[in-house]
Design brief:
Layout: H1 2-8, H2 11-24, H3 28-32, H4 37-44, E1 52-54, H5 59-68, E2 74-77, E3 94-99, E4 116-120, E5 149-153, E6 169-173, H6 176-185, E7 192-197, E8 207-210, E9 216-221, E10 231-234, E11 240-244, E12 263-266, H7 275-278, E13 283-286, H8 290-302, E14 312-315, H9 322-335
Parallel strand pairs: 1-2, 2-3, 3-4, 4-5, 5-6, 6-7, 7-9, 8-10, 9-11, 11-12, 12-13, 13-14
Protein name: F-box domain-containing protein
Organism: Serendipita vermifera MAFF 305830
InterPro entries: F-box-like_dom_sf
């Protein structure tokens, strides 16, 4: 029955399904090809389904993907940075690259169509103790002329080059001193950075950086300490602010310049928030426990001018049990 259904399904539909599935699992083209002759023919004739390449395979395997993907751009993942030598031949087709860090070999390669670069530290591939950086100095505009999205998950990034690409989005987990360098290197072009802050900061001198085109800012704080941000950002065009931090003794937002924000998502409503901070907020989302939920409603009811342009108030109920959820619904109805 399964074979007959597969045989009747239009080729275009099969190709689209295989392409979507392959985006989540690079092995899909190999697996569906073993189902039946119809599927094998369809997937082998669908070059877009072979665009996601895992370099942690035998050379024959990733070369097969290079060949069957035709001239389409590639999404390449490699744990070992030394696999860079194996993609030189297709570097002109790599649109998205995931690697642990860069080695000097990359100097001989250019990636003209690469738009997204993800760099993760894998414990299996440790960097020499004398050079504990990710090789960020190799991320230059001549090498990556179209790089617009960068993700870095490491606390050892290395120096930032003068000709750093004009990024649109930046997602970074790094030591506080290096955050400023990355942000400042592309401050005029950044639109949506996401910064995870998991280190304490004690330097009283805070750097100030202006991001004139910033529209969305997500700030995550993983340490349970009430410490200052390592830099002060000026964001005159910010519209969306997302803060993922639930520190009990924190009375203010991690990011201060939010007077232009219309959409805000917090884990709880900080007691020290002023009318100035919330004066343009139209949508407020809180991912709060029941106690914080009650406190937030109380603050908003006590001071109707605190968030006077509010049009929609939303709560994420993941931290509430069934009884608390029912009570929360009743309180919201009364609040409206």
């Amino acid at each position: 029955m399964a074979t007959s259904i597969a045989a009747r399904m239009p080729f275009d539909i099969l190709a689209m399904i295989f392409e979507i599935c392959a985006a989540d699992d690079w092995r899909i083209p190999l697996r569906v090809g073993a189902v039946c002759r119809c599927w094998r023919t369809a997937v082998q004739s669908s070059p877009r389904a072979w665009r996601v390449v895992n370099m942690n395979t035998r050379r024959e395997c990733h070369n097969l993907y290079f060949h069957r993907s035709g001239s389409y751009n590639l999404h390449v993942a490699m744990k070992s940075p030394y696999s860079i030598n194996n993609i030189i031949q297709v570097a002109h087709r790599v649109q998205c690259l995931t690697t642990s860090y860069f080695v000097e070999n990359v100097e001989s390669a250019t990636f003209p169509v690469l738009t997204t670069l993800r760099m993760f530290r894998f414990s299996k591939y440790k960097i020499d103790e004398e050079d504990q950086s990710l090789g960020a100095h190799l991320i230059t505009t001549p090498r990556f002329p179209n790089l617009r999205h960068l993700e870095i998950h490491s606390i050892y990034t290395g120096p930032i080059p003068d000709d750093f690409p004009p990024l649109k989005s930046l997602q970074i987990v790094a030591s506080e001193a290096e955050w400023v360098e990355f942000v400042a290197a592309c401050n005029d072009s950044l639109v949506s950075p996401q910064i995870t802050y998991d280190h304490s900061f004690t330097d009283p001198e805070r750097n100030s950086v202006e991001l004139p085109n910033l529209r969305l800012f997500k700030y995550t704080k993983k340490i349970d300490e009430d410490v200052q941000s390592p830099f002060e950002l000026r964001t005159p065009s910010l519209q969306v602010y997302i803060e993922d931090a639930n520190i009990r003794n924190q009375s203010e937002l991690l990011h201060e310049d939010v007077s232009t924000v219309t959409y805000m998502r917090l884990q709880r409503l900080h007691s020290g928030l002023s009318t100035e901070a919330l004066k343009r907020v139209r949508v407020l989302q809180l991912e709060a426990a029941f106690g914080d939920f009650c406190d937030a409603l109380d603050e908003l009811q006590k001071d109707p001018f605190l968030c006077y342009r509010l049009e929609r108030l939303e709560f994420h109920s993941g931290f509430m049990d069934a009884e608390e959820l029912d009570t929360a619904h009743e309180m919201l109805e009364e609040f409206e």
